[in-house]
Design a protein that fits this description.
The protein is mostly helical. It is built from 9 helices and 2 strands; from the N terminus they run αββαααααααα. The chain starts with a helix and ends in a 6-residue tail after the last helix. It comes from Thelephora ganbajun (Ganba fungus).
């Protein structure tokens, strides 16, 4: 196997056209992000991973049920608008929040290379998910932040070639990861603006 980022779809490769963000490509890239939590290697992150995975499923179920109406994320949300239960719209909303949390945590890590991951993830949680969580959920996530592995160990796993080949260079990793995160940030911002403009988050 190649280094991790070579084995998954990058958000930089998710097509964005006039109609919006390509649904299937976005879901594929989101599934790739899930694997990062495996590399973090702590059971404390399982609630985060389970939440993201569950919301990916909700969006995919909607796509499979109405593919002609769900080619882009925007079309999927618009075409579910008149239904009583907007399961995919709510699932996508929470998926975007989980992606934003992960994106900002890794951006913090990239920007502050002397900081441990626990600092980067805690700062991201404070800025993203915490305001949406109640008093029962916050301690679970706080525990997960404290259970982050050492930065050096996580980055070593990112560059490792599990087939026995040489690891990716630090320069290559930083280039790939920065492109991946920049594209993810842009998609999240685009969809947050779309939700806010259309008031698609109302009722949840």
């Amino acid at each position: 196997m190649a280094p991790y980022l070579d084995t998954v779809k990058s958000f930089a490769d998710v097509p964005i056209i006039d109609a919006g963000v390509d649904t299937l490509a976005f879901l594929e890239a989101s599934e790739g992000l899930l694997g990062l939590f495996d590399l973090l290697g702590s059971a404390a992150f399982s609630p985060v991973q389970t939440d993201i995975k569950g919301n990916i499923v909700k969006v995919r179920v909607r796509y499979d049920a109405a593919p002609a109406l769900s080619g882009t994320l925007e079309q999927l949300v618009e075409n579910e608008k008149g239904e009583k239960k907007r399961t995919a719209t709510e699932g996508l909303m929470w998926l975007l929040r989980g992606l934003s949390f992960t994106c900002k945590a890794l951006q913090n890590s990239q920007a502050n290379k002397t900081h441990e991951l626990s600092v980067a993830f805690t700062s991201s949680y404070e800025a993203t998910l915490k305001k949406f969580h109640g008093i029962l959920v916050r301690p679970i996530f706080t525990l997960a932040m404290k259970a982050c592995p050492y930065r050096a160990d996580f980055y070593a796993k990112l560059v490792e070639d599990k087939s026995g080949g040489p690891p990716a260079s630090e320069e290559r990793l930083n280039q790939q990861l920065d492109q991946w995160l920049t594209a993810l940030e842009a998609i999240v911002k685009r969809m947050e603006d779309f939700y806010a403009k259309g008031k698609h988050d109302k009722g949840f």
